[in-house]
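Minutes, structural biology subgroup

Action item carried over from last meeting: produce the structure token record for Subtilisin-like protease (Microthlaspi erraticum). EB confirmed the sequence was re-checked against the source entry. Recorded below for completeness.
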Amino acid sequence: MFLQAETAQRKTYVVHMDKSAMPLPYTNHLQWYSSKISSVTDPKSQEEEGNRILYTYQTAFHGLAAQLTEQEAERLEEEAGVVAVIPETRYELHTTRSPTFLGLERQESERVWSERVTDHDVVVGVLDTGIWPESESFNDTGMSPVPSTWRGACETGKRFLKRNCNKKIVGARAFYRGYEAATGKIDEELEYRSPRDKDGHGTHTAATVAGSPVRGANLLGFAYGTARGMAPRARVAAYKVCWVGGCFSSDILSAVDQAVADGVHVLSISLGGGISTYSRDSLAIATFGAMEMGVFVSCSAGNGGPDPVSLTNVSPWITTVGASTMDRDFPATVKIGTMRAFKGVSLYKGRAVLSKNKQYPLVYLGRNASSPDPTSFCLDGALDRRNVAGKIVICDRGVTPRVQKGQVVKRAGGIGMILTNTATNGEELVADSHLLPTVAVGEKEGKLIKEYAMSTSKKATATLEILGTRIGIKPSPVVAAFSSRGPNFLSLEILKPDLLAPGVNILAAWSGDMAPSSLSSDTRRVKFNILSGTSMSCPHVSGVAALIRARHPDWSPSAIKSALMTTAYVHDNTYKPLSDASGATPSSPYDHGAGHIDPLKAMDPGLVYDIGPQDYFDFLCTQDLSPSQLKVFTKRSNRSCKNSLGNNPGNLNYPAISALFPENTRVKAMTLKRTVTNVGPRVSSYRVSVSPFKGASVTVQPRTLNFTRKHEKLSYSVTFRTKLRMKRPEFGGLLWKSATHRVRSPVVITWLPPM
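Output recorded by EB:
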């Protein structure tokens, strides 16, 4: 029975289909999909069915995206051949000194690329807000012709023509059917219904991956130097999936599906949408299919830090990237009436300048220096001109974008702003291109400045001084406070994030249509912008993966990931353990994963932990998924559980090792197995060492691995024996060391609380 009320409540659903179940009368899958939709919908609206299907998917996985009511979706899920029906998910973006900081000076990156002519043929697909093709970062001078194996296209649309693609931008497509189905037709006054990037985010990430070298790049004079991507001779394919109202899963999945069909080698996805079980996570399903086709997938971890369990994109076949600082900063100072100076950061450059030799009235409208309240956030409409005109205003960070607070202060007549961190951000300093003189300070300094402004018996005063660009900052790298944290509660046996890369104050190309502050009232236009977020760290890893793929075209995605993880470092440039910007304590693998990427060492890791598609599928078989739920990952019906992990997901051949002791206190010992493949010297010998743990003894067998040929595989086991069940996880490392290589794995031991 069909209810008339159904027509008004349609939403987009992603429908996963069993390709092998298509009955004989049908000659193609679109016919079959259309008949399925027709079978569950009101016959009176049959003429609409052609419009119900938004996309069909046929490369990374099989299925369609369609507009359905909740009742229709429920009926469709009961149909033969339908594996799963998943509601549309809304994703959010996780919003140039880095090549040098990472050791990829021009000579080094050129040397990596120069070894093979085919290196130019590495294509990185970037799923984002599109691309600004006129940017100098996408100049194709000196690049070889686009390889005949590339199957992508340059789609035309508003202000995007065929000639906007070249030998650097080899493909550009836009995906908006899911977005328009959810939000209505795109307003072309606000954004381009084409691959052209109005927002700037996609241009920034694409240039970070593979931007051509541009001398004299800077933002309003800050960070002056040569901007280049991690893999400056790789090619870029832009897949525009994000719009003013967000990024929708049906569009993202179509882009992944199309990118794999086009022939990309690496996918860079700087967005996320929370955590779902594997069988209900459409991005996990699509990227599983991409991995099966040999595509390396890099995703941002999210900007939910420093809260624990804030990660997104945690599937083991995805490389999950957290964010860290670099050794470059943009210092500024706040000097209060007592002549005490406080350090901060700023990217302000404008006509209005405060004299460093003069003091200006200072005001804080909050009621408590220790905890922010509604009056202290400088929200739109919250400032009274009578209280702030002609003054420097102290605003607490949070609720609204940082640059928007400055706009509010400026409109109310304020002459400057001190942006103070709260406990959430700690001492992490993120620089912004503000609309008025502004200095951002850490929580401790902010509290002292606020106390001064509130307690002085005389009128409080201050001045702000912007000092430009400094390099050689110590300590660095530091884990960004905003970088999302583990543990990975979906599967505690898989340590996430995987690693860190630069994600704070990153200079890269920018859209010619957007101000550096992204505020509509800001009339400034720049060729480069400085942004922060795991959105910025993800393309660093994507670019380095392209470099490794160029050097080792026969390596699997998991081998590339292993090379990145086992060569990562866990100490900063003061030789101390990596620290956490949200506090004074050292960070843990739940914050930094295997550590910070070291691209040159990752080119030659010595050993790799390889994982094939069947291994990943066997991992899924340990995750309490039903046969029908597992079926969404089996494009070919012949994949089945082989039980190769012994029903312990910790036995997945992951480069990180996580031992999870169950609630049953009688389980005192656990053995995990790993296999390494020799990609270093043909004859080599590795000896193992393991850091000590309070709660368990750790034994590795054998203690030596002797390789006699290239690509030889040798296995070892790690046995954990509980001495004392710890209330908190313990962290350490396992290191295989030869005469020429060091191969390190982070180790985590967790004891679940007794029942």
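Discussion: The chain has four domains: 11-87, 91-327+476-603, 331-466, 607-611+653-751.
Next step: EB to file the record with the rest of the batch.
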